[in-house]
Amino acid sequence: MKRNIYDVARNMNLSPGTISKILNGKGNVSTKTRERVLKYVEEIGFTPNSSARTLKSKKSLTIGIVFSDISNFGLEHPFFSSVLQQFKNYIEIFGYEIVFIVNRVGNYDLSYLKWCLVKNVDGVLIVTGNINKPNIIELVNSEIPTVSTDIKMDDLYSVMSDDFMGMKLGLEFALKLGLRKLACVSGPLTSRAFYERYLAFKEILEENNLTFKEKYFRVSPTYGFTGGYNATKELLEEVKEAPDFIFALSDEIAYGVIRALEDSGLKVPEDVSVIGYDDVSFSKHFTPALTTIRQYKKEIGETAAKRLLALIDGTVKPEKQVELIPVSLVIRDSTKKVNLKQ
To answer: Angle at CA 211, nearest 5°, toward 208 and 214?
Structure first.
């Protein structure tokens, strides 16, 4: 049975006006009531009448998506695809749909901005992008409300994990285990996330009076298993003494790191402890189950959706702001157990 806003209001014992405010992200409504209504409409699969809302609000009720400029990993990437799904789930509650921004429509080549103008999108989410690309710069500098979960630029609201916190949690855990030969395998430093995690790695070592050793740092040319595997094999071949800890700056790189260690005759975690980053769903099923830094994909996606809706409605200013979402350490089997007697 198709429900309308009056049905929702009657079932929730609220006024239609209150339901409308909540669905449009407006008005002074308590957090408890707002969350209760949003949970209910999601459970019953209620979607506001988009045609009526479009005529009334003069909006297209369409959000453009940029995914991705730099990595070429596409929608199969487990972290970013999950963030996008959470964003989509939330935005659809308010009657919006998402469309992917491309560089070509029919026989015509278009910039991201021109594509957005042709499609009349209300706002844009940059899931991943390259801040040096003219397409991205032009889009962010335009009047179109834009939010990112990956990059930082002037006039861009960004929602992302607190990477310094994540690196600190991982390294301090390693030190608590008594590990001192600390290595790091990163993905390409052209990525904002990898570069900031690399800088944090160096800074946190210095905070703990430890020296950053170039020989224990490797950059994978790719974002996944093969790059992590090859970078680790290269590290082991070039050092006289193997590290006792490796911080892999993504879970998929960590899988390659672990297999390279095992193929080199080293046991994980007996000889080398390994920590990943992301906590993608497969990490708990990998052997050994991966200790990792958990990023909260649902919170990132939903927060990005809320901020973009606020920008579209004009309730916040489109100025540079970075909102950091806390992370946590998930301890599994790829790291040594804490010696409580220490």
So the answer is: 140
